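Notes from the pairing session

We agreed to fold both candidates in a single pass and log them together. This is the raw record for the first candidate, unedited. Please don't reformat it; downstream parsing expects exactly this layout.

Candidate A
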Amino acid sequence: MLYKFKSPAAGDLIMLEPNGRRVLEVIGKDAGPQGIILAADMGAAISALEQAVAQEDADHKAAVALAESKGEVAPKQDAVSLRQRALPFIEMLKRCSTAGKDMVWGV
């Protein structure tokens, strides 16, 4: 399944199901086949995504530091981090918020 996010304020954004689901869960939305993010809720969504990205980065740095302190091989981060996956979504949210337009998917 694909998530296709749409808004009159930005071009369409397509995400694979696991990535779209994770982003929607981070912002507190039901990851169903259809939904809407209201313009009024976009500031909170942007903040939630930025906090999740910062937390993932901090967790990875802590895991690397712990492994190095034990003389072990540092764990690798996912090939594509949440930061990379969420950036286009955050940019779309910012454009929609500035324009005062809602974002929808599955419609």
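Candidate B (folded immediately after A)
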Amino acid sequence: MAGANKSTSTNKQNPARDAKKGKKDKGESTGVRKAEITVILNEQQAMKVIQNSKVVTVQDLARQTGVKISAANAFLKQATIKGTVKKVGGYSGHYLYQVISS
């Protein structure tokens, strides 16, 4: 038969070969802890960016201050609670923020 099953040695498991490739069980822990990264957004710098713009998005604030979007988003949410900025538009998480005139 032309397409008969062929017995190859690649189907056999070789534990020594697996060890050379560095395969590990999923349950093993490497013992390495990931460092927790905290980013603090300078409030004065962020407010300067917001005040110099008509409106600002989370992405704009993150880019101009050099922080992650999550840090900029947390700052804008806290500023909204404090009453220093307000949401003036946007949709689905892409909101526009504006400083409240005093």
